[in-house]
Amino acid sequence: MTPILERHLNLLDYALTSLWRRRLKNAGIMMVFAAVIFLVASFQMLTRGLIDVSEKILTEVPDIVIQKMSAGRQEAIPLDYRERLDDIFGILKVVPRIWGYYFDETNGANYTVMALELDAMPASSQLGRAVIGEVPSNNLNGGIVLGQTVLGNLHLGGRRTFSLFRPDLSLKPLRVVGEFNPATEIMTADLILMSLADGRDLFDMPPEVVTDYCIYVANPAEVGTIARKIAARLPDTRVLTKPQIQKTYQVIFGWRSGFASICLLTALVAFAILAWDKASGLSPEEKREIGILKVIGWQTSDILALRFWESLVVSGLAFLVGCLGAYGHVLFFSGSLFRPILLGWSVIHPSLTIIPVIGGDDLLLIFTFTVVPYMAATVIPAWRSSIVPPEAAIK
Amino acid sequence: MFLNPWSLNLTLCAVIVLFLVGTAAKTAVRVLLYWDPSSDSNRQIRLEAETWLSATLVEYALLIQVLTLLLFVIAADRFSQMISGAMCATGTLTANAYGIPDLLIKLVGSFLYGFWILFHRIDISSERYPLVRFKFIFLLGLVPVILVDMVLQTLFLANLKPDIITSCCSVVFGDEGGGGRGNLLTGSDPQATLIAFYGLAGAIIMTGICFLWQTLGKVRRLVTGGLSGIFSLEWAGFLVVSLAAITTVFSSYIYAMPYHHCPFCIIKSEYGCIGIFIYAALLAGAFFGLSVGVVEPFAGMDDVAQTIRRYRRGAVLLSLVLLIIFTGLSSYHLLLYRLTGGA
User: Which of B1, B2, B9, B19 is the best mutation test for A, with the most CBs of A within 10 A?
Assistant: First the structure.
């Protein structure tokens, strides 16, 4: 074994015994530090998990969505706009859609209503395949498919029929013909799927308009070009592409997580001050110990290395405890402490299971965000303690 | 784009490095003003103790800087998912004029901190601290490097504009056509780069062996100095050529895609993080290789001559081992392709 390695192993050995001797003080610091790391790591894992889940959902989003804008707000788009897109090469399907929210006064929840002709969608679309039971036909017959959470909220019991209110408060009879597979909960929890004709009837929309168009493109590499052509052809519309929506989700989760990090920074600074303070206040025994070490031939550099190992062991343990705690928090409790901050608030939440995704890069992020400030906060007190003169042992 | 955990973290690390080196620089000023080896006053004893503090602080700063370097590249890769037209770290770093300069200054900074630690180690090996003034002037020189790094990083982050859907009616389209802003090094000839790469690697090994051989016998210092100078110059050239070779030649073989030339994606886990090992071997090898020449001006000082001689022997040997590891790792996919005809 090389002498350098041997020296550090011996120092580590001494550091461990010295930490054990003052276990109460060190365990206290470690637990507070672990709590700070737990908060930071929970956020990071939750953000990463949510980005992952949102990426999975967004694979189901149409390649392009067209919405008509008027005075900066979205309004219904006429059906004849569709003819103006006919000769754009590369468009696979144009699917008109009525898409909106239905507020259920009995339990204060908002359901998402989506009405479209399912057989007009490309075969690659997953929506039809997610249905257990029948798919609503194109006719005005009240056949609907419900998401699992809506199904639970409506308390239907064994019944298959119920009614929703039209805007004029007349009742629209509906019949449950199928339900969404619970595995698709995150995208279908609050969803009611029906035919375009039923949707128009429920929202009392005129026959010549829909809320938006879903456009499916044959070659994903052409999405940008086709979107640009559509925007030129229909200047009064907003054209949203799938990649753009994906980037927006990334930015939003990143932004919210960054905002939370700023809030956690205060906890981190408070902890760094605590660590500094704890490391600065040398007890008479500690002074004596360093004095004795100096008398028996230890150098300043040895004591600095000893302190480095002590800090590394404390922060390493806290890092392990904090990260494991955060992993459990996200896996078993779906990050319930922070989920509202990242997801937003709503009565109906999909009961999604977030699998904490953690890579080496995330661990590096958490490590540099927590352990580096701790090490930096303890280095100057460590030096102060290392220059205690040998006479301190005799006093 | 500051409100993002990666940006915040990079800024936090930069502030910590500035704090550490700034505190060390305070000692540097006091040492330059009051250092007097012949005195045994309280101030002198305290100054001697403070040199230990500054050494520790710079060591910590180096450690953080190396971590930041990795963090910076990973963050750039993560940002590419939000920046229009960027597909990987290359796209993000070239998204504005500050990315690549900041990366280079971080790299140069890491080498400079490393050299400072080396000077400190050589200095304390002698009881008379012969390099004390030099090393603290050098330390003061590090402060502007850190400040430039910090400014460039802040400008880089501030000028990153994420491609998000705005609530107005207009359409925001990214630069979809490019997919990254081309290669970092366009127009270089892969064949010539490879010849330079293997040629320089061979030259370094030859010079290194000559150096090690001559240290066994009694050769004049002039020869040793000349050889160490050549060795370092070769390493400096090799570092530049290697970075070009990784970008233009080796990376495509690692990705198994002829048109993907990116020096950063190789550090991703999709490619077994091979890039981390490649860069670690290259940068550590280059550090030891360059340090052989950097210590040359002090090789004649009686106090530290013995230490420097011992250090240089170790550094040359270590840099040769790292060179072989680096060349092997980076050429592995190329050789595999040439020998087995590809996947």
Answer: B9
Question: Tens digit of pLDDT for each residue in B189-226?
Answer: 788 888 999 999 999 999 998 888 877 665 565 667 78
**Residues B267, B145 share a domain:** no
Phi then psi dihedrals of residue A363, to 5 deg: -65, -40
Residue-wise pLDDT for B56-87, tens only, equals 888 888 889 888 988 998 898 888 877 766 77
Facing residue for B3 by CB, picked from A247, A258, A376? A258
Q: Do B164 and A244 touch (CB under 8 A)?
A: yes
* Beta strand pairing call for A191-194 and A109-116: parallel
Which residues on chain B are in Cβ contact (under 8 Å) with A375? Answer: 60
How many domains, in total, are found in chain B?
2
In this structure, are B213 and B130 located in the same domain? no
The residues, ordered by sequence, that sit 6+ positions from B60 with a Cβ below 8 Å of its Cβ are A375, A376, A379, B20
Would the CB atoms of B71 and A231 count as touching at under 8 Å? no
Write out pLDDT tens, residues B154-188: 999 998 877 655 443 334 444 443 333 445 565 56
Q: Quote the pTM value.
A: 0.81
Whole-number Å distance between alpha carbons of A355 and A186: 13
Taking residues A110-120, what's their average pLDDT?
Answer: 84
Comparing alpha-carbon positions, the chain A residue that sits nearest to B60 is A376
Residue B146 lies in a domain: yes
Q: Identify which of B5, B16, B169 has the shortest CB distance to residue A238.
A: B169
Residue B169 resides in a domain: no
Domain holding B148, by residue range, is 5-158
